[in-house]
């Protein structure tokens, strides 16, 4: 398990506490969280690839977006996005509808089944994360919460668009 230290960590601080060392430790923790996330998603009622889940979540966040916007959001080519949407539509998770104002443009919408599958995945992920957090001491959870708040605040100041804006 990754040792990130904490309130009960009384060891002397050294070079392993610098930003690079902590970044490496966080990368390990993120990798572990990603594995937990993937496992929870694979246990859902319908197994989807991470790419398919990202596409569905992107459409969920911006209902009615077009194929070009989806491709840009996923950082993939337009033909790849089109094939991805074909597979999601064939599975009954996504529907394409003509744009009401532009006949050449197609809007993407989640189906009821697509919303259900995303809800199932989100619920499983939340339960898996809650189980891991339940195994932590209350002080460790509090320290993690404070650390994450501090990280997000710092990220917003050093990363352009870190707050979700461009």
Shape: globular
- Total beta strands: 2
State the major sheet: 2 strands, antiparallel
Ends apart, CA distance between termini? 36 Å
- Low-pLDDT stretches are 6-13
Strand order of the largest sheet: 1-2
Secondary structure: helix percent: 55-70%
SSE pattern, N- to C-terminal: HHHHEEHH
Can you put this structure into words, describing what you see?
Helix 1 packs across helix 5 (112-134) and helix 3 crosses helix 4 (78-90). The protein is mainly α. Residues 6-13 have low confidence and may be disordered. It has helices at residues 19-42, 50-61, 67-74, 78-90, 112-134, 138-158, and strands spanning 94-98, 106-110. Strands 1-2 form a two-stranded antiparallel ribbon.
Layout of helices and strands, plus pairs?
Layout: H1 19-42, H2 50-61, H3 67-74, H4 78-90, E1 94-98, E2 106-110, H5 112-134, H6 138-158
Antiparallel strand pairs: 1-2
Brief rundown of the structure:
The protein has 166 residues and is mainly alpha-helical.
Keywords:
166 residues; mainly alpha; globular
């Amino acid at each position: 398990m990754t040792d990130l230290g904490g309130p009960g960590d009384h060891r002397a601080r050294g070079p392993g506490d610098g930003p690079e060392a902590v970044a490496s430790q966080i990368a390990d923790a993120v990798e572990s969280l990603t594995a937990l996330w993937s496992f929870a998603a694979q246990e859902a009622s319908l197994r989807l690839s991470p790419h398919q889940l990202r596409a569905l979540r992107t459409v969920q966040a911006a209902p009615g977006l077009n194929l070009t916007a989806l491709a840009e959001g996923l950082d993939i080519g337009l033909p790849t996005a089109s094939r991805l949407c074909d597979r999601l539509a064939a599975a009954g998770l996504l529907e394409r509808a003509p744009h009401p104002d532009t006949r050449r443009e197609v809007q993407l919408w989640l189906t009821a089944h697509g919303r259900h599958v995303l809800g199932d995945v989100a619920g499983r992920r939340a339960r898996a994360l809650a189980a891991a957090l339940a195994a932590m001491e209350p002080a460790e959870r509090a320290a993690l919460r404070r650390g994450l708040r501090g990280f997000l605040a710092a990220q917003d100041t050093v990363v352009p668009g870190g707050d979700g804006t461009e």
